[in-house]
Amino acid sequence: MRTDDTGDTWRRTTLPTLGEADRFRVYFTDHGTGFVADGSHVHVTRDNGHTWHRTTFEATGTARAIAFTTLDHATYLVAATTTTTALYRLPARSTRWSAVPGVAASGVPDGDVTVHEGRVHTTLAGRYWSGARDTWTESTPPCPANAATDLSAAPGTPLFALCGDDPGMGRMHKLLRRHTNTGFVDVSEAPREGITQSFAAVPGPEGRVALTSVGLGATFVHLATTDGTTWTSPLIVEEPPLTDLVFTDDHHGYTLRPALPDNLFHTTDGGTTWHPLPIR
User: So which domain of life are we looking at (predicted)?
Assistant: First the structure.
């Protein structure tokens, strides 16, 4: 389904033939260009979803997409093969992903990527790089080696990292950190309820961030205000998990709860309140 009026009306759209995946990923760089990924292939549209083309990865051919971002008319993707998690770059109008030289790691196939102040920031299997085009620097990771790492930044915000560890019984330790000139520093501890599913900064100078999590039959939106120091939980609903949290500006945000009739929630006040968004 697609909408061109922030969710007031919806209509069916075409999709490429997709294989199996534990989670399909959808990412649009602008009104016309977007990507859909299954467990081994990434498809691109450049006409707002009317037609799709399968992309390829140099050397490997296929890879499992984990996270996307965009900088200077190129799309960057964290993707995993059977042995390596790496950062790939796709120039505008291309259908072939090229590995960013030297930005790859072996180990647990996990990572994230975002853009802040004209640089791409990525974590791959516990390691951390930043850079653009052909110049990349590896630095101290934002989170300990045993912690899951989510990155997010938005216009007007710092670069944030969410470090998650000690999961169990529908809870986990979540530490919010912020990037400074000397590295990442602690900001606050997020609510322990739920295992993290997605993480997003809210555009604007207030330093808001939000995350979705799931545990013990419930799924949550946790919101941090006051430069990330004060947490509330404005949305708690039954499973399945809320995923794919995104903010399009300082007021509007969306999160998806797949497989249920009221599966899309939205906010118009920067995450303070959330409501189902009917798809009709």
Answer: Bacteria
Classify the C-alpha dihedral 236-237-240-244 as positive or negative. Answer: negative
For strands 34-37 and 25-28, give the pairing: antiparallel
Distance between CA atoms of residues 228 and 17, nearest Å: 41
**Domains of the chain (ranges, CATH numbers):** 141-280 (2.120.10.10)
- Tokens read off for 221: 């939106």
- DSSP E strands: which ranges in 64-217? 64-71, 74-80, 85-91, 96-105, 111-116, 119-124, 127-132, 135-139, 148-152, 160-168, 171-180, 183-189, 195-201, 209-215
Length in residues, the chain: 280
pLDDT (tens digit per residue) in 217-256: 999 999 999 889 999 999 999 999 999 999 999 999 999 9
